[in-house]
Each structure stands twice: as structure tokens, then as C-alpha cells.
């Protein structure tokens, strides 16, 4: 992804991610003050945990993502403006947040079927 107007020559390091995992955005023109970098995945804020002039690292709360579809990643640097992404096709510059299953319970069930599973 190419980002310009506020941040330039940036890219999203991973276009598929589990919710709660970190997303790294590279470019230039970012603020070193965490609160001045506003990152969204779709309409959900991505909590910025670190920022340098050329890299932002953030994480999206799993409970806030309600869509399994492609979500646009947007960056706004306060006092610098929105980043504009030049994309090659409709899916470029979008993040696919996929569910992460940690536990399946119970671990055994009836051979005949009918068991109710809990996924967490």
C-alpha cells in the first residue's frame, strides 16, 4: 500500500490477522506521540502501542470487530491529516480479521452426534 498526504510510502505488514494481534504500519510522517496517530480498522479504533516517525504498531480489540469481511485500514496523524492509500485492486489495503479459537469444549462427544460444543 502506498500512503501519501500526511504519511508517505507506507504499507500494512499483514493483510490477514487475528483480532487482538498487533498490526504494523510502515511509512513516513507519523507522530512519535502515540495519541496523535489515529488508526482504524473499518470503524474500530486500533489501540496504538508504539509509534516512531516511520512505524506504528497497534492492536484491535477482538470484541469490537463484528465483520469477517475485508476492512479498510486508515491512518490519521493529528495536525498532519489522513493518509491516502494508492491500491492496486479492491482488496489491497484492507485487513481481513479472522476469528481465533483457543479452546473447544468438551474435547470428546457422542459418536452418534448431537454434542454441543463451546468455542472460545
Overview of the molecule:
By secondary structure, this protein is mostly beta strands. Helix content is 0%, strand content 48%. It contains no helices and 13 strands. It has strands at 2-4, 8-12, 16-18, 22-28, 37-41, 44-51, 55-59, 70-77, 81-82, 84-86, 94-98, 104-105, 118-119. The strands form three sheets. Strands 2, 3, 4, 5, 6, 7, 8, 9 and 11 form a nine-stranded mixed sheet that branches. Strands 1-10 form a two-stranded antiparallel ribbon. A two-stranded antiparallel sheet has the order 12-13. A hairpin with a 2-residue loop joins strand 5 and strand 6. The protein starts with a strand and ends with a strand. Residues 1-14 have low confidence and may be disordered.
Which consecutive residue ranges, at least 5 long each, have pLDDT under 50?
1-14
Fraction in beta strands? over 45%
For the largest beta-sheet, the strand count, sense and barrel status come to:
9 strands, mixed
The succession of helices and strands, N to C, reads EEEEEEEEEEEEE
The span between the termini is 33 Å
Mean pLDDT: 75
Which descriptor suits the 3D outline?
elongated
Taking Cα atoms only, what radius of gyration do you get, to the nearest Å? 18 Å
Write down how many β-strands occur, each being a DSSP E stretch of 2 or more residues: 13
Helix content: under 10%
